[in-house]
Amino acid sequence: MRFGALELVPLVDGRFRLDGGAMFGVVPKPLWERKAPADERNRIRLAMRPLLVRGDRTLLVDAGIGDKMEPKAVEIYAIDRQVSLADSLAAEGLREADIDLVLASHLHFDHAGGFTRRDERGGLVPVFPRARYLARAGEYDDATHPHERNRASYLADNYVPLHDAGVLDFHEGNVEVMRGVRVVRTGGHTMHHQIVYLESEGRTAVFAADLIPTTAHVDSAWVMGYDLYPMDTFTFKRAFIREAIDQEYLIFFEHDPEVAAGYIREAAGRRFVEPVVRD
Ligand SMILES: [Zn+2]
């Protein structure tokens, strides 16, 4: 998709399922189930959609879950990578070596899993051999010092090998990482979770990561149970959604099972998403 001087391409690294209750926090099941039907194990369908940004450099935002998950986790999360990130890049005529920059919204395994892979000797290496990887310093600090509440989400194999290989750069603050691409810390989901503003020729798109993981999460109070600081999510999201509606931001939904991007609209006090890219 052309977006001013940038090209924005939602990719996919397969599909998975997570507990519906955990995805919708305090929202009662009869309400969320209408938007996201649960399977016999109470799981809902989700996708992983890293974003490719082509401008004066070639940037990837997040990289999906990758191929290192244990068989038990593949079963628990119903991970289906029949279409992987590599396939999705190939469909755009790109190889892993064509990526210049890889940016992390945060370091949970369903976002950073595709940053590394095992080589023939069992060592862990960067998937994108020419790329510099970028993460928020505080996020890396939290990810390397997990506690009981976030330990299941932070898997060191996904990011410590990048640091060891000398390809991981840290940033603090809301910086421009490439022309037209700016990160903004939201907190909430994790203390240093960030979203990505894509701005060109007067238009704005936002990769919302886990601030608004699916189109079912466009109500400010529909906050994930997974979030470490749910009131921070709520406060940020309430203001952000107002801004997104008023200024017609194109929003990329990283985990929606069908809609990769769309506009948040409001009619008669109700909010909904007008899809722009779906599969
Ligand atoms: Zn996620």
How are the elements arranged and paired?
Blueprint: E1 2-3, E2 6-10, E3 15-19, H1 20-24, H2 29-32, E4 43-47, E5 51-54, E6 58-61, H3 71-76, H4 85-91, E7 101-103, H5 109-112, E8 116-118, E9 124-126, E10 132-136, H6 137-143, H7 160-164, E11 168-171, E12 176-178, E13 181-185, E14 194-200, E15 203-207, H8 230-246, E16 250-252, E17 259-267, E18 270-278
Parallel strand pairs: 6-7, 7-10, 10-11, 15-16
Antiparallel strand pairs: 1-2, 2-5, 3-4, 5-6, 8-9, 12-13, 13-14, 14-15, 16-17, 17-18
Low-confidence stretches are: none
Order of helices and strands: EEEHHEEEHHEHEEEHHEEEEEHEEE
Assembly state here?
A: single chain
Rg measurement, Å: 18 Å
Helix vs. strand class:
alpha+beta
Major sheet: arrangement of strands: 1-2-5-6-7-10-11
Helix count, DSSP H or I runs of 4 or more residues: 8
Estimated share of beta-strand residues: 25-35%
Q: Give the fraction of residues assigned to helices.
A: 10-25%
Q: What is the mean predicted local confidence, pLDDT? A: 97
* Dominant shape: globular
Bound molecules: zinc ion
Strand count, sense and barrel status of the largest sheet are: 7 strands, mixed
Could you tell me how far the N terminus lies from the C terminus, measured between alpha carbons in angstroms? 14 Å
Number of strands: 18
Describe this protein's structure.
With about 280 residues, the chain is of the alpha+beta class. Helix content is about 20%, strand content about 30%. The protein is built from 8 helices and 18 strands. The strands form 4 sheets. Strands 1-2-5-6-7-10-11 form a 7-stranded mixed beta sheet. The chain has a 7-stranded mixed beta sheet with strand order 12-13-14-15-16-17-18. The longest helix has 17 residues. It is globular, with a radius of gyration of 18 Å. The chain starts with a strand and ends with a strand. The relative contact order is 0.16. The site of zinc ion has 6 residues, from helix 5.
